[in-house]
Design a protein that fits this description.
Strand 4 and strand 5 form a beta hairpin. The longest helix is centred in the N-terminal third of the chain and has 24 residues. A four-stranded mixed β-sheet has the order 1-4-5-3, with helices on both faces. Strands 2-6 form a two-stranded parallel sheet. Helices cover about 55% and strands about 10% of the residues. The termini are far apart. By secondary structure, the protein is of the alpha/beta class. The chain has a domain of about 60 residues: 434 Repressor (Amino-terminal Domain) (Orthogonal Bundle).
Amino acid sequence: MIGQRLKLARAAAGLSLRELEARIGNRVTAQAIGKYERDESMPSSGVLIALADALDVSVDYLVGDQEMILEAVEFRKKKITSKREESQVEAKVLHLLERYLMVEELLGLRSVEWHRPREAPYPVIQDVSEADRAAQSLREHWGLGTDPIPNLVELLEEQGIKILSVDLSNIDGLTARVRRAGKDAVPVVVVNRKDWGERQRFTLAHELGHMMMEVAGKVDEEKAAHRFAGAFLMPADALWSEIGKHRTSIGGSELFALKRLFGVSVQALAYRCKDLSIFSESLFRRLFHEFSRLGWRSPPYEEPFAMEGELPTRFERLTYRALAEEAVSEPKAAELLGLSVRELNRRMEVEPPAEREAIAE
């Protein structure tokens, strides 16, 4: 039966039943499509192909039998979003994760095991500053020391957390767990592909905080996640080493050098320095007055020398590996990557030595 997958694919495409009816040339009515989604009837082969084409999925996908659900979904929103938009995002996430987990299973990888500390979730009950200890404990567990993290996406994927980059409108990111029948849940963090790099990194660290902390009492959960993100990306010892423990002034050149070093915005850097009492209250206020004057505190919040986003690459690498090991066919690999077979073959080509040498010169 195709009900769940058809409904999921339609939600991911952001289409109503009537819009899907129109997209398939009114071959069947919206009411008929609704019956397919409720598994009350099955489409003919011709209608099935039309539905797959309209939704940009394969027929094999629609008739597949793997069931997945998202649980513990938490959105990080820019502003009020509609339920339709949230449902569309959840459907996209499930669709992408299904392909990701399929490739891992084909390669015999143990995707459900991620490197979560036994002590987690870390309690944050009395004060938001307890989030610093949570971030430090996680860094110790993952053996990170106090060095800046050069690529946060790569780190989280190495630790078994699925990272997805999706075009989003009113949402910065989300955390969730995806569960398949009879299997443990897999953690996933989604970031907005449209955001600039420092904002994506802070979103990832923020969502990691939600995953790693148990916030209770009078502590605000969002403030705790913000504090965790700052502490995880900018450990106190590292900042003290670079900037000292007490400052009453700082110049733009130094701020932007620290921005590049830690991969954060100057605004996040200023907040972290205030939290650690490195910046006096008067310096913090002066800096944010200047940030506002320069327009950095207004959408899209982008500062000079913004980093490019850190795109997750593990799924793509695994798909190429599955193709090389003949675990998937060329057409299937192209479908998984959203490419034509021709483009897939082009990407698989190895550059001739003469061309590489000419480029090097």
